[in-house]
Amino acid sequence: MKTDRKQTHIIAHHEGGHAVAAILLRRPFKTVNIIGNEQWGGLIAYKAMPKKIRELDHSDARVIQIIERNIIVTFAGGIAQRRYAPDSPWRRDMGHCYVLTPALYYSDQVIGPNRISRPFADSDLAHIDDYLAYMGKHCGVARAYRASLRARTEELVEAHWPEIQRVARALLKQKTMREDEVRRVMFPSRTLREAERPQSKQREQAQ
Predict the structure, then answer these.
(1) Are the beta carbons of 200 and 45 closer than 8 angstroms?
(2) What is the pLDDT of residues 82-92, one digit of tens each?
(3) Which alpha helices (H) appear in the chain, and where do they start and end?
């Protein structure tokens, strides 16, 4: 997919939003990139959840917490994008991700035979709806729950906007970044252990 300079910057902030939220909420990922191809402009490749988590019942409090964090991480891309470019839509050609059926959400979301691919803009929002359906939330309850999680995501993006901007700038230079590289950009003058301490408050908000 061909993109101009403005579009590339928008994609970098979208992917940067996902990556920063993922680190703050401990959603492991392999890489995030803005390389793109004929179908999408950027991609974040998440790691599989531990087997002990995948085997838990979906009504388990730990699973619900993980799903809520995943929803916030998913929201963070579009919200960061709109924070950077308010008039930009979550366009069909903005990027791409791989979405698994609800029963497989804790398997690898990029590698595996049981994957369903969707256009990025649709998949962000559809992924959230699928998560909510998996949790048994429908109609009015789902709308209220989604609105609550979106509000929390907006607070996260606003509170960590400088980090998102740094990651977006780094993506524009490097095109692809590993999780540890994103961490170093987010916290350039601190050790990994020191960088994780302020995250405890954000994780509590996601519980």
Answers:
(1) no
(2) 999 998 876 44
(3) 5-24, 51-54, 61-84, 120-134, 139-159, 161-174, 179-186, 192-196, 199-205
pLDDT digits (tens, 9 = 90+) for 78-125: 999 999 999 887 644 344 343 333 333 333 333 333 333 333 334 677
DSSP three-state, residue 59: coil
Range 26-50 average pLDDT:
85
For residue 45, is pLDDT > 80? yes
The residue type at 58: H
Residue 81 C-alpha from the chain's centroid: 12
Q: How far is CA 171 from CA 123, 178, 196, in A?
A: 22, 10, 22
The answer to whether 92 touches 119, Cβ cutoff 8 Å, is yes
- Token pair in block for residue 115: 């994957």
Assigned token pair, 28: 């492991």
Alpha-carbon span 72 to 85, nearest angstrom:
20
Whole-angstrom distance, CA of residue 151 vs CA of residue 131: 17
Q: Sketch out the chain's domains with CATH numbers.
A: 5-193 (1.20.58.760)
- Spatial distance between the Cα atoms of 120 and 90, rounded to a whole number of angstroms: 8
Please compute the mean of the pLDDT values over residues 40-60 and round it to a whole number.
Answer: 78
φ/ψ of residue 133, rounded to 5: -65, -40
pTM of the model: 0.76
CA distance 3 to 196: 35
Structure tokens at 122: 């649709």
Most distant pair of Cα atoms in the chain: their distance? 46
